[in-house]
């Protein structure tokens, strides 16, 4: 099932999250909810959580506890005010799809380059520069980089790009 807490000013975690199914697989906190309270309080207790949508919340920081969501396969953090990401996100080894568009990111933390299952990465509309280790993302098929201030791709990434299916630089 899906718990959708969209367009709320606050999330009443005791009522909203505790009434969700024990086997919750998707969770949405779109539009102005408290990710810190949700992740620290109840979302981390959802062992089967595979999708987390936290877009359009004007978030400035992602709590380190995000790294405890070990079964997460899709994470959407687009349209926030993030300038950095916690290194603990590198623990999300099942993550296949990561949406970080339209934030204020200037770099990807090195642990993110260890996400072996990642097939889709959207970092468009940021201020990003790619680390040399981005070439370690061997399963990455789609990379969206548009509207960044990239001067070039890391040399090792360009050399391995033939296995990549789709780059978007617009």
TrEMBL record:
SUPFAM superfamilies: Outer arm dynein light chain 1. Pfam families: LRR_1, LRR_8. It comes from the Eukaryota. Keywords: Leucine-rich repeat, Repeat. Residues 1-15 have a biased composition (Basic and acidic residues). Signal peptide: none annotated. One of its GO terms (cellular component) is cytoplasm. Residues 1-22 are annotated as: Disordered. The keyword Membrane does not apply. InterPro entries: Leu-rich_rpt, Leu-rich_rpt_typical-subtyp, LRR_dom_sf, LRR_domain-containing. Gene3D superfamilies: Ribonuclease Inhibitor. PANTHER family: CASPASE FAMILY P20 DOMAIN-CONTAINING PROTEIN, PTHR48051. This is Uncharacterized protein. It comes from Cyanoderma ruficeps (rufous-capped babbler).
């Amino acid at each position: 099932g899906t718990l959708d807490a969209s367009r709320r000013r606050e999330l009443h975690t005791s009522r909203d999250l505790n009434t969700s199914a024990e086997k919750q697989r998707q969770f949405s906190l779109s539009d102005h909810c408290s990710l810190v309270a949700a992740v620290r309080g109840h979302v981390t207790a959802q062992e089967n959580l595979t999708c987390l949508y936290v877009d359009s919340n004007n978030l400035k920081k992602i709590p380190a506890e995000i790294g405890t969501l070990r079964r997460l396969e899709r994470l959407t953090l687009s349209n926030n005010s993030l300038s950095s990401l916690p290194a603990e996100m590198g623990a999300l080894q099942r993550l296949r799809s990561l949406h970080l568009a339209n934030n204020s990111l200037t770099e990807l933390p090195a642990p993110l380059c260890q996400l072996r299952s990642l097939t889709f990465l959207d970092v468009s509309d940021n201020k990003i520069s790619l680390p040399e280790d981005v070439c370690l993302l061997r399963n990455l098929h789609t990379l969206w980089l548009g509207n960044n201030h990239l001067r070039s791709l890391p040399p090792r990434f360009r050399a391995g790009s033939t296995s990549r299916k789709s780059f978007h630089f617009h």
